[in-house]
């Protein structure tokens, strides 16, 4: 089974090298892909010097566009699954075996859930997480404990679907379309880690994008 570790990164100097060092303890550098989303710092050179695969967006295109590039790379290079992680050290590589186990059980989309540790989440993040998770669960037609985690594993048939959104709303689109296709969505527990860097989420704009996506799928 071939799994690609895909890491979208924007201005993550210092943090990206620590994450890649940890990942290389268990994965071959050729199976780790960093997508530098137009960083203005040394993220790109740090990733290159680590020996992993690196591609670069010349402009900041958004997390969704970076992940779409990773999906295309995975499909064209014969990978069975794509595991996505954030570059800011909020995701622990030690949690990866739980994703692999769920994938082996037949899950097409495995989402890392912080449900058991939500009390550690900043209050505003908690409220946003619960509201968006509730809405996505209703529209997907199944209970999903935590839909806002970017720590996920996608089967090749999920990675091969067509997606249209480009920013953080992309991850919600993945959930919608996976559910619509009737593919199996599962969860696996992950650690909750905060305080490693500033969030690149624009709470106002990304909330509006989520509303737009929700209305689109409700209309369908």
Secondary-structure element series: EHEHEHEHEHEHHEH
Strand order of the largest sheet: 3-2-1-4-6-5-7
Number of strands: 7
CATH topology description: Spore Coat Polysaccharide Biosynthesis Protein SpsA, Chain A
CATH architecture: Alpha-Beta Complex
CATH superfamily: Spore Coat Polysaccharide Biosynthesis Protein SpsA, Chain A
The value of Rg in angstroms is 16 Å
**Principal-axes shape call:** globular
Report on the structure:
The chain is of the alpha/beta class and 220 residues long. It has one domain (3-219): Spore Coat Polysaccharide Biosynthesis Protein SpsA, Chain A. It is built from 8 helices and 7 strands, in the order βαβαβαβαβαβααβα. A 7-stranded mixed sheet has the order 3-2-1-4-6-5-7, with helices on both faces. α5 runs parallel beside α8 (203-219) and α7 (169-180) runs parallel beside α8 (203-219). The N and C termini lie far apart (36 Å). The mean pLDDT is 86.
Structure summarized in a few sentences:
This protein is of the alpha/beta class and 220 residues long.
What does the secondary structure layout of this molecule look like, with pairings?
Blueprint: E1 3-9, H1 15-23, E2 32-37, H2 43-49, E3 53-57, H3 63-76, E4 81-84, H4 96-104, E5 109-113, H5 123-140, E6 152-155, H6 156-159, H7 169-180, E7 185-189, H8 203-219
Parallel strand pairs: 1-2, 1-4, 2-3, 5-7
Antiparallel strand pairs: 4-6, 5-6
């Amino acid at each position: 089974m071939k799994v690609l570790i895909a890491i979208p990164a924007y201005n993550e100097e210092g943090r990206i090298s620590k994450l890649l060092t940890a990942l290389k303890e268990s994965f071959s550098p050729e199976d780790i892909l960093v997508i530098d989303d137009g960083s203005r710092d040394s993220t790109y050179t740090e990733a290159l010097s680590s020996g992993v695969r690196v591609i670069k967006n010349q402009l900041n295109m958004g997390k969704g566009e970076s992940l779409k590039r990773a999906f295309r790379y995975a499909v064209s290079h014969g990978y069975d699954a794509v595991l996505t992680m954030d570059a800011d050290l909020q995701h622990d590589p030690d949690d990866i075996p739980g994703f692999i186990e769920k994938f082996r059980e037949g899950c097409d989309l495995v989402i890392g859930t912080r449900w058991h540790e939500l009390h550690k989440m900043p209050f505003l993040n908690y409220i946003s997480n619960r509201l968006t998770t509730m809405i996505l669960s209703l529209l997907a037609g199944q209970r999903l404990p935590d839909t806002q985690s970017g720590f996920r594993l996608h089967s090749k048939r999920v990675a091969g679907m067509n997606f249209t959104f480009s920013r953080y709303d992309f991850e919600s689109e993945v959930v919608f379309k996976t559910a619509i296709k009737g593919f199996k969505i599962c969860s696996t527990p992950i650690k909750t880690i905060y305080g490693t860097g500033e969030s690149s989420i624009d709470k106002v704009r990304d909330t509006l994008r989520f509303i737009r996506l929700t209305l689109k799928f409700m209309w369908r």
